[in-house]
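Table S7 (text form). Paired inputs.
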Amino acid sequence: MTRIRISSGSPFEEQVGYSRALVDGDWAFVAGTTGYDPETRVMPDGVADQARNALALIERTLSQAGFAMADVVRATYYLTDASHWEEVAPVLGATFGEIRPAATALIVGLIRPEMKIEIEVTALRRRG
């Protein structure tokens, strides 16, 4: 099987040595995605807006790889503060409410102070 690397064009991908996503057969593994606006590279202050931006980039990445959000089978949410959950849960529910992937939410430290959430997903291409 051929591995396909998907890039978002972020300078961090080459600098750090990772791909926005890696497709291996029927699987797509999307790297942790934060909430920078994909066009302006500006980070919004609100965690809900950060989550929306991250999910939009994830959706675009999956589409580029030939997958859909409905193919997501696992999602991991990394939050910097448990108090953000109330604000971000409706955003996640709007995206994954019908899909219902296996999911985990963790409270962690992220590499930049403006980052409040990072989202990582795994997708399995649906057949037939």
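Next pair, protein 2 of 2.
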Amino acid sequence: MPDIFDVQDLEQKKIFLILATPGMIRERNIEIIKEISAQGYHTVVITTNFPYSILAKLYAQSGIPGESVTFIDAVTRNSIGNAQNIPGVVRYINNPTNLTDMGIAVTEVLHEHSEKKICIMYDSVSTMLIYLSSANISKFIHFVTNKLRLMDVSGIFLAVEKGLDPMLMTQLTTFVDKVIDTA
């Protein structure tokens, strides 16, 4: 697959909505991280789709250096109860509905890595719909996109194509700079 991003778009701190087919969402996640890492970015992955431990293994198998990614995991504690944060590697959120803790974690991790070229990626907006209403997701993503712009950070929202209701899709499209359909 050709590059998903134009290097200039990342350098200009643009915010993207990337759409993938349901069967390709995991592969797109890996391709995105691989591409961003190759361009010298540190990626903060907020995952509501796969646990940190699974993504870390997939990234390692794909040759992505572990030190180029930090995780905010909203899945593991919800599934198994307790998991200890690993400073600089993973920060756990109790569950995907706790948007306040997620927002705080994003802010703290961005500050921890402020000396690096950073890109933040949400995997996935579609999965958040299991836990939250479209209205709450829209408000949260609006908050996050504004925070990213104010902090001068690139952002990516990964979603399943046709997995978002039309109103949420319309709102997300207005929050981002570019929609990339990889389906």
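The beta strands are 15-20, 42-47, 69-73, 90-92, 118-123, 154-160, 178-181.
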